[in-house]
Amino acid sequence: MIVSSVVRRVAAGAGVLPLLLLSSPAAAADRPVEPVPPPAAAPIDRALLYRPGTLVRLPPGVPAPPRVSARAWLVADARTGDVLAAHDAHRPLPPASTLKALFALTALPRLAPPTLHTVSGHELEGIGDGSSLVGVQENVTYRLDDLWNGVFLSSGNDAVRVLAGLNGGWAQTARQMQATARALGAHDTRVVSPDGYDAPGQVSSAYDLAVFGRAGLHDPDFAHYCAKPYAKFPARGWTYGIRNTNRLVTGANGVSRYPGILGIKNGYTSSAGHTLIAAARQGRHTLVVTVLNPRQGGAYAVYEEARDLFDWGFAAAGRVRPVGSLLPPAPRARPVAVPAGPASRTVPPATTAAPSAAAGPVKASAAAAADDGPGVVLPVTFVASACLAAATMWLVRRRGGLPD
Description:
Blueprint: H1 2-12, E1 19-22, H2 25-28, E2 34-36, E3 54-56, E4 70-77, E5 82-87, H3 100-107, E6 116-118, E7 141-143, H4 144-152, H5 157-166, H6 170-183, H7 206-217, H8 220-226, E8 230-234, E9 239-243, H9 247-250, E10 261-269, E11 273-282, E12 285-294, H10 301-316, E13 324-325, E14 336-338, E15 345-347, H11 360-370, H12 380-398
Antiparallel strand pairs: 1-2, 1-3, 3-5, 4-5, 4-12, 5-13, 6-7, 8-9, 10-11, 11-12, 14-15
């Protein structure tokens, strides 16, 4: 009876917002949203983001995320790593040139400016048909800064080829990118072509791309290049202007520049459709948004759908409970044998989560997870045992078996 009362009081005080599983726009009109309560007093459940459909925890007064046509999308707080809302976050999809964000995370630390390099003809071999190009030419000497401008602004597959060659080669770079993704906790990504060109088996996800975008914001070189609207690119004895193909950065082609935009990377291939990783800062909040393959609205829908998600995210930031985290999982503790006389026992050591690309968000995210509601401090079986022992002691004392 006492144990049951304790459990009921803990469950009643959990105060966890329901998880709303929003169906696709077409199905949402046919049936209402069904709230599904998450486990009480639990930290962020990473398995939630593997569920299909739209996931969000809405407190009273906060509207639902906008209905967009993208096959997958995600909105996250770049500081804490908290995922505010997502749709099919782990769905494997072709990433197109958004994969260049992972390429930059991998190769930039190894190939930092101001090195000069003269391009040879064999370095430009193997570029896929129809690739986006910045105009790298044989026998022209470039600064690495120029080539990185070509990667971020013009999405130049020719610039990626040259930089990958300097990084140890195409296959070596793909392996390094795969290792970088795993280290960041991005397990949906399969790298075949480092430039994002369509290749059999090459996929990523809205979740993984958001991880790459968040990590990029904490790399000063990455953040510098991805936010540039314009740059000059050298040719033989002259230079020409290049413009960032991310319309939220430049405000080109009828797409308005987004307030507080920090850039990152857009992409397009026939298999992937239009894809985008974008980040923006307004007030105290910095958000990362990923949008994969909108099915309505034309070539620039990816930007307008990202805009709608940004608007919702900035209005909801600090109010909605997270449905996931971009932080990599904490490493599992290895049991350590502790000798204790005849009956030795094995106890796990105390551990802390390994820091991600930014050390600060780990602490903030832990605080957010703890805010999911009060936890049961003692296991129920322990409480029951304690109650039984107390009752036994009382009976023994009553019969005079022990001194008061």
